[in-house]
Write a structure and sequence with these properties.
The chain is mostly helical and 261 residues long. It is 53% helix and 0% strand. It has one domain: Rhomboid-like (Rhomboid-like fold, Up-down Bundle). The protein is globular.
């Protein structure tokens, strides 16, 4: 009797639920809110660096001008901006990358750790965008920082070792990941990083249009989220049984008696 193979597409429930939430938010904005209400929602839930500027008069705004939501919005917009998208293209691009990379991360981390990574990566993206766009009035929206966090975490285990794979049921989901510096020395990880950074620069600089109906790519937020996943991977990765591996050994051997390559 042949051994049952895992399905080619096995999207974790937490990824499906998060995707459904993002689609639901965009459906509400598209079909239930008029333009004025949608603008109010963007001002209330998007991330706007000017919220944190001490003097808004330099932006030709009234001295007594206040962004909606007050202090609470100053806090929650570090997260809520990730639920808004410019249009369906923006949303579906993020969902496609979330399914591709987030599924692998969710399979390895489990739902709670996956959501924690998504949350912290979203905040990390907002923080780097704030630093690089201090006082900016342009609202930042999109789940790209969270998705970039999934990418940064995924390459720590899916691209290293003898058989890179993002598929379900792979041994990589259950074995210890490469240490950070070992992962960065892997040629495949280096190539991925170079391509990813290059693409973000091209889209963010406007050299290559991304096809959104409005706005520009907040590539600094992408990098902030990516760094959370790449550098903070060990904080979210569940402990692995590694007693059969020699200390400092990477890639790990399949069994204690298998010779090193």
């Amino acid at each position: 009797m042949s051994r049952r193979q895992p399905p080619a597409f096995n999207i974790p429930s937490v990824v499906l639920a998060l995707s459904a939430m993002l689609v639901g938010v965009h459906l509400i904005r598209t079909y239930l809110l008029d333009r004025e209400q949608d603008i109010d929602a963007i001002l209330l839930f998007s991330f706007i660096p000017a919220r944190y500027a001490s003097d808004l008069s330099v932006f030709n705004l009234p001295v007594d001008f206040e962004f909606p939501g007050g202090l609470l919005a100053d806090i929650w917009t570090f997260v809520t901006y990730g639920a808004l998208h410019a249009d369906w293209t923006h949303l579906f691009v993020n969902l496609a990358w979330m399914v591709a990379f987030g599924s692998a991360v969710a399979m390895r981390f489990g739902a709670a750790r996956f959501l924690a990574l998504s949350l912290i990566a979203t905040i990390g993206g907002a923080l780097l965008h704030l630093v690089t766009h201090w006082g900016g009035l342009v609202p930042t929206i999109g789940a790209s920082a969270a998705v970039s966090g999934h990418m940064g975490a995924a390459i720590r285990f899916a691209l290293t070792g003898p058989a890179p794979s993002f598929g379900p049921g792979q041994q990589k989901m259950h074995t210890p990941a490469a240490p950070l510096f070992d992962a960065l020395r892997d040629r495949r990880v280096f190539i991925f990083l170079a391509l990813w950074l290059g693409i973000n620069f091209l889209f963010g600089s406007g050299i290559v249009p991304i096809g959104l109906s409005e706005g520009e790519v907040a590539w600094e937020a992408h990098i902030g989220g990516f760094l959370v996943g790449l550098l903070g991977f060990s904080l979210f990765d569940p402990p692995r049984q590694s007693s059969q591996f020699l200390p400092g050994e990477w890639p790990p051997r399949e069994s204690p008696d298998e010779p090193l390559q």
